[in-house]
Amino acid sequence: MILVAGGTGHLGSALVKVLTARGMRVRVLSRNPSRARVSVPEGVEIIAGDVRVGSSLKAALAGVETVISAVTGFGPGGDGPRRVDLEGNANLIDAATAAGVTHFILISIHGADANHAMELYRAKFIAEERLRASGLEWTIIRPTVFMELWAGIVGDPLLKTGTATVFGRGENQINFVSVQDVARLTERAVVDRSLRGRTLDVGGPQNLSVNRLVEIIAESNGRQAKARHIPVAALRLGAFALRPFRPDIAGLLQAAVLMDTTDMGFDSARVAANPQVGATQVAEIVRPKSSIPVTA
Q: What average pLDDT does the chain have?
């Protein structure tokens, strides 16, 4: 039995489909099982539990051999990296250890570091360290930026109003990886014992600017590539002002600053060298549709 925490988000949904297609028994941990049922395939068990509450996890882990944590508190409406990515993962790791789970796969983030400017990256790094020290067999997967998430954040305004919202200049090169490719790597980590005790960085085949991302979305949907740019100074001010009241939006603005001002690239040769994982292009996931979902 495989327990997937965060099984209804962009990555979690793709992961559950990949695992069930392989014939694996999957259980999804959810704070709201009735709502989760809408997006979870038939035959997948859904069990109530909340990684923020350690005492709620015991029943979910009964009979589980592998835990996959794809949870995150980052994004609009999220509870924040500290509550979910750090404390939630700590609770899940501790509960898995107590339950005698064999293998724990943590979805972290490319560039996770104890001294990173963003709380999300620091929280993921602390969770990594806790997992390594847990005594469990482990695999850590560090993906770059999810293309499905940011195609929605950038593209929804373009498709709805005719003008995309670009945070900053939009010229910095960023690596976007598809959740489908991350899901395939995670599936490999479940079955391939040689990937245990390893930290695996995974990225997409292209480093693109956000301006180019807008162009691809526009081209794929028969629109003009019009964009409204929000200056970096305004993003920094907004992140500072909103932090006490809307830390979720403040974190998103801080991420936008990071994506516009720091090195967000990935060596595409590393992607080509691992053909079993996949190398999905942005154009492949930005198909014509009335709305691109942005739920994390």
A: 88
